[in-house]
Amino acid sequence: MKIYTFLQQNDGKPNRNSLEALAAAQQLAEQTGGSVSAIVFGSNIETITDYDLAEIIQLQNVELENFNPLAYVSAFENLINAENPDMVVFGHTYETRDWVPRLSARLDIPFLTDCIGFKNEDEFVFTRQINQGKINSDVKTTGLTIISIQSGAFRLDSLKSGSASTREFTVDLSGISQSIRKGEKFQEAKGSVDLSRAEVIIAVGRGIGKEENMDVIKELAKALNAEIGSSRPVVDYGWLPHEHQVGSSGQTVSPKLYFAIGISGAIQHQVGMKSSDNIIALNKDENAPIFEIADFGVVADLFEIIPKLTEKINSLS
Amino acid sequence: MKICVLIKQVPDTDSVIKISNDQKSIEMEGITLATNESDSYALEEALLLKEDQGGEVTVLSLGGESCQQVLKDALAKGADKAIHLDDDDYKDLDILSAAKVMVNVLKDKEFDIIFSGLQSDDIGNAQLGLIMAELLDTSHASLVMGTEILDEKTIKVKQELEGGWFQWSELDLPASITIQSGLNKPRYASLRGIMMMKRKPLESIKVSELNLENTSSKSFVHKLYIPQKTKETVFIQGSADQVVDGLIEKLTNEIKVL
Which residue range(s) make up the domain with A303? Predict the structure, then answer.
């Protein structure tokens, strides 16, 4: 199997999720007796020449220097049509989400996003999480297929080192549409909450029900001298500022204790907290995905447990 | 401004999901259905744009008969027209094929903007908006957290990137834009809206009766199953007092934060 994988670069360094995708591609090649070629846009390839690859394919073009989805799609369309790989592997990054579905439509080929693995049992299948992580779905495809790999699903320390030759692939992108014009990247004013240094995080999710109930969480956090984190819906509803959000679009944390209260544990939340030393999860739904990664679990109504717990902790000190 | 919003009906996020006997689908019996969360934000953004710029909002949903409910909810909130693509006898479309079916109905309608949620809460492909852009030859932007019309041919969008970064982009219209949740406050339907809804057009089209080419799926669900746990969770059980005592014991002796 001829496998192509794209190494997205950010600030001159390969994107972490892209390298995880490279690890996935290497394992795919091993299972199928195939080869891996890494595709790089731009001139900066020193950082990736130490991996076990059949080759590095370098595309140098002024239109590829900064992210332009339409130029990226055309470049890959040219490459794939010229070289006919069997599989193309990406990291499921925010950037690839902004162009690879379009590539799939342009080439009329299937694209399986956010895969967490693959296996060859009775058939070769890719595994995706559906219904917010409650169910795994094994999917098969026909013909040339694009997949993207979930952040954190493959480990960087499983990357095989080695050497790779480099060749150039030339594309003509002179007529590319400029109908999408990307501006400067920016960060909004940083808040005062630095969850990455917190030893204990009390994290609150949709289960809290309404803003007026937040005091239940604040009092527990005070009793445990903890910072307050949250899942995305709590921020979306305006119950906490964005700086409290943990997950793929918020902060990544690994405290000594992460106490998840009323958080179902969608994948986007888990990637931000699953490496915590200890995870306690309290949820009224025993099937909530958060319990898949929790060390300690409580299936209960948070309002019956948390105020009592706070009271008890306060009485101890 | 002619705006279309693509809306999906999905199991409510609190639903307990069970797998059907064929191991290829979800048991729908007893499941509460709702509008996909990011689609609600997409609809709100469309309604705000209409109020600001004038124009018309059409909502479209592909699914079984039940999905007329999410269309009716959208009409009650202020959308002007609804199109239901009834797939009851045309199931198991993968996302690329589903997009082709929608394009078949939308291609001659000359929308300035197609809004959709960034991904569905059930299947989570996170692809539809970009596939629509390619098939309809429009510009696109994904993960959008803000919009601003610059002139009749240009829209400015704020896109979310990883780790708290953002980026403004300008798009030529027509554009297909996928909306991230949280950028606005989706409204509730007013009583008047609910009364008005009954007089608004809701067109239902059977997918099997469309003149479709090249819409057979290229990806197929092989098997669904409950994920294996990566950790052995110790459950603390009993009355509220027993659970509290259990938690205090873990916090003190095992996690050592007390």
Answer: 195-316
